[in-house]
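Expect chain and fold; see below:
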Amino acid sequence: MQPKISLFFKSSTSTSETPDPPRPSTNLFADENAKESEILITYKRKSRTPDRVSEKIDSSRVMGKSGKVLNKKRNYAQFHLELGQSDFLLHTCTTCGFKYAAGEEKDEKVHKGFHKTHTHGIQFKGWKNERVIDLPALEGGRIILVLDVDPPAQAKKVQEVVKVMEMELGDGWIFKKQCKVYLYISSQRVSGCLVAEPIDKGYRILSSSADGRNDDISTKKARLIATTLQFGGMSFQREITKRTRSEKHIEVPNGAILCEKEAVPALCGIRAIWVSPSSRRKHIATHLLDAARKSLCTDTIIERSHLAFSQPTSAGKALASSYVGTKSFLVYTTTDYDQ
């Protein structure tokens, strides 16, 4: 017969009561020589700045699929491939003045297009309605007159040509709305341009400034001090050469143009004239001047002596004196007509 289950939960009489834990001694110096339990505390020295940077760099790197270490942080350092280049500076074209990175495919392509535009002229496919100036002596090209009332496409082409002109002649003064623009077209390119306007007066320049002579000095020999030196049977006489300025010429500062104070009648003002470098020495500028004289005034052909030029360069002076037939041609200021 199995015992009752309550018998398993009865406390054992044979077990003695648990003794009380020992009380701590009140004597402060008791067991002074006894061995106490030791607590070990360790300190880790902080790493220096370079090590901390390297730790950050190492922690920011992860392993790629190919096993290479990849850097998750952005690196803005610029690197170059050493392929035998002389330097990494921009190259400036001596012909067109364009700056580009040599060896860069995009820069090379942009420079090639700009260089061709500068040397051969602006590309021009033609318009449906063109105002062509008929010149018997003109061969191999045509001259188109553009007015401010023409369609926007023609005005846009004029602005494109003016930008090329401003690179050589300066910007901000070449073109205004009331001007008449003459374009010389050859081989589907604008290789020449003339900007003209009607005027009523000009000033004749002095021939000395047209020659480009800064100072004309004539040499006169004057025997100021005459001394005789005797060497045996030979005698030597010393002379001094004095340089004096001639009163027939006027000293002109470099680059300046001297003109008379009194104005003279003029009808056509040439604000600017430009020919592409590859088309120069082909009488294109002469054809443009002929077209301006013929069509600026509707009822008459302007005489060459009634042309006035604005801010002529050294090449412009040579062109003006050759075309007009005198070194004392007329000039005018564009500010008098900029309204």
Confidence is low (pLDDT under 50) at residues 213-226, 242-254. The first helix runs from residue 49 to 59. The CA atoms of residues 20 and 201 lie 132 Å apart.
